[in-house]
């Protein structure tokens, strides 16, 4: 045995630590699937009549979004999309939300679409808060701003709504935490320190009406995780379970009811009723 050889009781922990580190890196990177410009369906911008919006975050990242104004202007939705694609993949969502009665700012997080940087949990929260402040500076009162999250965007929407006032929160394919999702999809990775995206403590601090939307056949985020978060959330709240919908086909499975449900939800908001009284 060489005098320079490393004892097994030192080598083994080092190997285990290296493997753990590699799994941790994989788990963290596997959360995000950004599609950068020019990939995507950018020609749809003209069809939507969407304007480009460029924002600068407090940590110096230039981010991009699409702005679509709806005629009445009572409500505006800050849409926080899921972990894959970019704004162009949300064409149908933009169309339906606008048709339901809300203007919409569809944000691309850092690293997505035309936005600079690379996505991180803290970065996504910063991007969303920057977009919220932009809407306020544009003249919208907090009670006119709807935060609409999709999948990982639900955690982002919950984070923003737990810190600032808003008109309402829509959570589409919601979950309790990234770790809970990982335990379901990849049990081994579920034990790793995956970035939190933990909404369990934040949801109780939201002081706005909540609408939960989820498919009963969601193959990525089990319905029970959305139901668990719903149980932790304060009133007023409602949960729309879409029969036959998976994770990525909620809009298709819901059909015309998607727009109709949003219309009814918007009309039920106290802030919209106040606006109607003032103008009446």
- Annotated CATH architecture: 3-Layer(aba) Sandwich
Per CATH, the superfamily is: Alpha/Beta hydrolase fold, catalytic domain
Describe the biggest sheet?
Answer: 8 strands, mixed
Element string (H = helix, E = strand): HEHEEEEHEHEHEHEHEHHH
Number of strand elements: 10
* Shape field: globular
* SS summary, helix count: 10
Approximately how much helix is present in the residues?
Answer: 25-40%
Rg, nearest Å:
21 Å
- CATH fold annotation: Rossmann fold
Which structural category do the helix and sheet elements fall into?
Answer: alpha/beta
Structural summary, described in words:
The protein is 39% helix and 19% strand. An eight-stranded mixed beta sheet has the order 2-3-6-4-7-8-9-10, with helices on both faces. The chain has helices at residues 8-29, 44-48, 91-100, 121-137, 152-161, 178-185, 223-232, 250-254, 256-268, 270-279; strands at 33-34, 51-56, 62-68, 75-80, 84-85, 102-108, 145-150, 168-172, 210-215, 237-242. It has ten helices and ten strands. Strand 9 (210-215), helix 7 (223-232) and strand 10 form a beta-alpha-beta unit. It is globular and about 75 Å long. Helix 3 crosses helix 9 and helix 4 (121-137) crosses helix 5 (152-161). It has a single domain, classed as Rossmann fold, CATH 3.40.50.1820. The protein has 280 residues and is α/β, with parallel strands linked by helices.
